[in-house]
């Protein structure tokens, strides 16, 4: 049982060390992903606005048809 506990502790220390190393060597790595997500949200919002404007225009023009 002690062997298992020591193995798990060692694994935890190694993983924490690797995470610390990655976070300190590449601190702005995630900012690129966030920027891409924000651009995607902006594009989706613009498309939604354009679709709404076109839909309203087509609906109003269709109402004028006799």
From TrEMBL:
The keyword Membrane applies. This is Heme/copper-type cytochrome/quinol oxidase subunit 2. It comes from the Bacteria. Keywords: Membrane, Transmembrane, Transmembrane helix. The chain crosses the membrane at residues 37-58.
């Amino acid at each position: 049982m002690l062997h298992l506990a020591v193995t798990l502790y060692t694994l935890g220390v190694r993983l924490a060390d690797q995470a610390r190393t990655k976070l300190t060597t590449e601190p702005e790595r995630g900012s690129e992903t966030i920027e891409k997500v924000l651009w995607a949200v902006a594009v989706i919002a613009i498309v939604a606005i354009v679709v709404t404007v076109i839909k309203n225009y087509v609906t109003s023009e269709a109402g004028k048809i006799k």
